[in-house]
């Protein structure tokens, strides 16, 4: 076999303009592994976020950390999402990589604050410790005191998801000796007074997640906070607002004009008028996350104030299926007409209409991400009682750059015909309670050339669709189907036709014994997860997962 | 005995949920009608049986999950409550159910993993509600009791008292004296002679600060008190001049 010398290979790579292409080629050769500096690993399927994947399914970080510890000690950054990370894993990580700089954990679980203590203690050059929405067991505040005095390199520290108490003195000391701090996200336990003290040391801060802003504090405390915030001239992004009382709102005003990002989505204590008082002053806002208590009226205020808005997320405050939401299609139409730059949307509402969607599509042709969740499954157009096929059809037709789409409401196979026909750049599609027949799924598989991830739940797609274009799955990262009509037989056929795929099935009711006792091949498969593999079936699958 | 009260973490709709939780057939029928769109399967066919008699299924952990959220939310044990307090609480619960049940739509159904909200968000929003009730005190707004822990320096265990059973500081101090009389309390126990007596009564307020008992009017104290600590007088130097309790 002939080899190209490395210099030649590198020269070839220099012609690859995009990061993603370079990443792809870097996966090809084991020889390049020892030089690995940055590793990003994602574990569980996306629907694990919504409790659709049973615990112990997999996604363990340990084998990755162990392999890296053996093979690429130059590792500097590790980013993991939806993985199970243990304290032992974190300790190994902390001790194995002398140049380690950045740890980013998103939606992970399985570790405690003791694991963080090891990271703090041993990673001398740590620049980034970013913990986003993880489930972390609280074993006390000791970890924050573990950063040695010599560690002055922190640029980004996010511990908002840590549930327990934090030692204020340690926190202040740490911030005081970190002159490069650009991003700091505190947890709920941090008081207003501590926050004020910390902000005196962070003139270069660009992103702040506050601690709690409850109303038990004296006005003096809030005045100190305002003074401290005013010193942060670079501050552009604000989040936290834990337990925020309306009293705190005016104290944030001096900052509003410079904010480009605002996350109020964990603050049910602020109502429509509090929110609009704040947001109407945020004229440079590009990214806004709020709860639906902002209401349609509030969204109209956003639309008239925030002309640069690019990303909007409106989360429900009531999580029931038939729950009440104060936002409807009207709020979204208002946003679309006031904020033409809108490109990324996540919107939970209790009703929608085709007309609204058609208007929105015309107003905002720049959507890259469009995720609409109508709280009640299969809910039709609120005015005409028709399916919402035409509305979503307009979205995919007008938004030629659409890469991610989540659909909801009453939908027939027709919407999939539109998606297959128009959504040529679509990479990720999420479907729930939609469609009539296999044709729906076939439109998507055949039409969406760039599809990478397809996740479907509670939709009437069966073996015909599953097997209708099996080669497609080798061009995709993964397929998820739960509560659909695929059968064991269909999955077995898929597995036998496509040896380069792992076809995992999960039947939740008591694991594998259930499967063998019901020998009927036509028994429906509860959950199906299909993904490419170069290594064959994984060895860490639990009992309830069968890999065909 | 009614099933454990699901603390509705958003506070928007507990009564309908709990009404359904008691297994009222009418409410469930209401659910079916409401969601039974023509040609569609009822989405709650996926409702896991294991989660049993509650409708707040998304709060309860999936089988085997560690996060025993529902374990955290224990209603105050009825048998321990002061008799009067408990009765009021029960009546008020019933009233809440009745009042709120009328304007609410039929009991809200649950579908596993729907709406698609991350568990982290659900759990965090739930703790929002829990946090705003006092951590060391067990109480719900409008309920007839407010339990706070009472510790005494040197005593081997803590006690709990219901602040709502006292009308003023004198009642409180008398009760505490009785409660902790088994332990050495110095010459005058918890009387006003703090300079001479061995112990001083302090409390932790909503901010987490330790304050001397007696400075503010009783009602204000009762509303902000999260726990009580009977401190050794020698530790309490500098807390200020003792004042007479009104």
TrEMBL record, chain A:
GO molecular function, one term: auxin binding
Pfam families, A to Z: F-box_5 (PF18511), LRR_6 (PF13516), Transp_inhibit (PF18791)
UniProt main location, coarse: nucleus
A GO biological process held by the record: SCF-dependent proteasomal ubiquitin-dependent protein catabolic process
Source species, domain of life: Eukaryota
Signal peptide (UniProt feature, chain positions): none
F-box domain span: 4-49
Transcription among keywords: no
Pathway(s) annotated for this protein in UniProt: Protein modification; protein ubiquitination
Location(s), subcellular: Nucleus
Keywords from the named record: Auxin signaling pathway, Nucleus, Ubl conjugation pathway
An annotated GO cellular component: SCF ubiquitin ligase complex
Assembly: Part of a SCF (SKP1-cullin-F-box) protein ligase complex. May interact with auxin and auxin-responsive proteins.
Name recorded for this polypeptide: F-box domain-containing protein
Source species of the chain: Eleusine coracana subsp. coracana
Taxon lineage: Eukaryota, Viridiplantae, Streptophyta, Embryophyta, Tracheophyta
GN (gene name): ga20505
From TrEMBL, chain B:
GO CC terms in record: nucleus
Biological process terms in GO annotation: auxin-activated signaling pathway; regulation of DNA-templated transcription
Localization: Nucleus
Annotated region described as Disordered, given as residue ranges: 17-47, 60-108
PANTHER family registered for this protein in UniProt: AUXIN-RESPONSIVE PROTEIN IAA17
Family: Belongs to the Aux/IAA family.
UniProt protein name: Auxin-responsive protein
Taxonomic source organism: Eleusine coracana subsp. coracana
């Amino acid at each position: 076999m002939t080899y190209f010398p490395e210099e030649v290979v590198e020269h070839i790579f220099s012609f690859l303009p995009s990061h993603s292409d370079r990443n792809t080629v870097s996966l090809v050769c084991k020889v390049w592994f020892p030089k690995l500096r940055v590793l990003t690993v994602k574990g569980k399927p996306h629907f694990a976020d919504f409790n659709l994947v049973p615990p112990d399914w997999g996604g363990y970080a340990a084998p990755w950390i162990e392999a890296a510890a053996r093979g690429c000690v130059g590792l500097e950054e590790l980013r993991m999402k939806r993985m199970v990370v243990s304290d032992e894993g974190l300790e190994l990580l902390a001790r194995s990589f002398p140049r380690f700089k950045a740890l980013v954990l998103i939606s992970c679980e399985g570790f405690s604050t003791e694991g963080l203590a090891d990271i703090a203690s041993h990673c001398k050059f740590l620049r980034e410790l970013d913990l986003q929405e993880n489930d972390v067991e609280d074993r006390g505040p000791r970890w924050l005191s573990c950063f040695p005095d010599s560690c002055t390199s922190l640029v980004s520290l996010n511990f908002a998801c840590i549930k327990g108490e934090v030692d204020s003195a340690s926190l202040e000391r740490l911030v005081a000796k970190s002159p490069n701090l650009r991003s700091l996200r505190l947890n709920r336990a941090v008081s207003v007074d501590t926050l004020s003290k910390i902000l005196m040391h962070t003139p270069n801060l660009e992103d702040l997640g506050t601690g709690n802003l409850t109303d038990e504090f004296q006005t003096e405390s809030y005045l100190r906070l305002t003074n401290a915030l005013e010193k942060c001239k670079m501050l552009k992004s604000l989040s936290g607002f834990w337990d925020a009382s309306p009293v705190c709102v005016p104290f944030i005003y001096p900052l509003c004009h410079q904010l480009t990002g605002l996350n109020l989505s964990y603050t049910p204590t602020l109502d429509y008028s509090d929110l609009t008082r704040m947001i109407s002053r945020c004229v440079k806002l590009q990214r806004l996350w709020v709860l639906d208590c902002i209401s349609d009226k509030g969204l109209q205020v956003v639309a008239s104030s925030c002309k640069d808005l690019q990303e909007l997320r409106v989360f429900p405050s009531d999580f029931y299926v038939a729950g009440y939401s104060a936002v409807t299609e009207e709020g979204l139409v208002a946003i679309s007409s006031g904020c033409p730059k809108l490109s990324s949307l996540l919107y939970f509402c209790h009703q929608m209409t085709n007309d609204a969607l058609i208007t929105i599509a015309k107003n905002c042709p720049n959507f890259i991400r469009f995720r609409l969740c109508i709280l009640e499954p299969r809910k039709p157009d609120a005015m005409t009682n028709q399916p919402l096929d035409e509305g979503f059809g307009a979205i995919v037709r007008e938004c030629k750059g659409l890469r991610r789409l989540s659909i909801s409401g009453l939908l027939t196979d027709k919407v999939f015909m539109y998606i297959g026909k128009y959504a040529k750049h679509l990479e990720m599609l999420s479907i729930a309670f939609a469609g009539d027949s296999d044709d729906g799924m076939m439109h998507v598989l055949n039409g969406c050339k760039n599809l990478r991830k397809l996740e479907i739940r509670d939709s009437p797609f069966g073996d015909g669709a599953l097997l209708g274009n099996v080669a497609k799955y080798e061009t995709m990262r993964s397929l998820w189907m739960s509560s659909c009509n695929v059968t064991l037989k269909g999955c077995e056929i898929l597995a036998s036709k496509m040896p380069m795929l792992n076809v995992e099935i999960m039947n939740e009711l008591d694991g594998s014994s259930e499967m063998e006792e019901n020998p009927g091949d036509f028994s429906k498969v509860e959950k199906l997860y299909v993904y490419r593999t170069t290594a064959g079936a994984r060895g860490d699958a639990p009992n309830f997962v069968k890999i065909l | 005995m009614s099933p454990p009260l699901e603390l509705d973490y958003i506070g928007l709709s507990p009564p309908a949920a709990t009404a359904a939780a008691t297994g009222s057939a009418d409410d469930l029928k209401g659910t079916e009608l409401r969601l039974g769109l023509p040609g569609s399967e009822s989405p709650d066919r996926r409702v896991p049986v294991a989660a049993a008699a509650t409708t707040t299924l998304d709060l309860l952990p999936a089988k085997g999950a560690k996060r025993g959220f529902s374990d955290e939310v224990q209603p105050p044990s009825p048998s321990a409550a002061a008799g009067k307090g408990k009765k009021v609480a029960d009546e008020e619960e019933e009233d809440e159910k009745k009042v709120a049940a009328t304007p609410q739509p039929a009991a809200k159904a649950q579908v596993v993993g729907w709406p698609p909200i991350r568990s982290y968000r659900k759990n965090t929003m739930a703790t929002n509600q829990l946090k705003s009730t006092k951590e060391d005190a067990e109480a719900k707004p409008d309920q007839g009791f407010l339990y706070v822990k009472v510790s005494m320096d040197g005593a081997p265990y803590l006690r709990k008292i219901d602040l709502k059973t006292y009308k003023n500081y004198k009642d409180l101090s008398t009760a505490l004296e009785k409660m902790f009389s088994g332990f050495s309390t110095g010459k005058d126990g918890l009387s006003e002679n703090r300079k001479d007596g061995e112990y001083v009564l302090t409390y932790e307020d909503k901010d987490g600060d330790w304050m001397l008992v007696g400075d503010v009017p009783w009602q204000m104290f009762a509303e902000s008190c999260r726990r009580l600590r009977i401190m050794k007088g020698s530790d309490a130097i500098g807390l200020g001049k003792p004042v007479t309790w009104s």
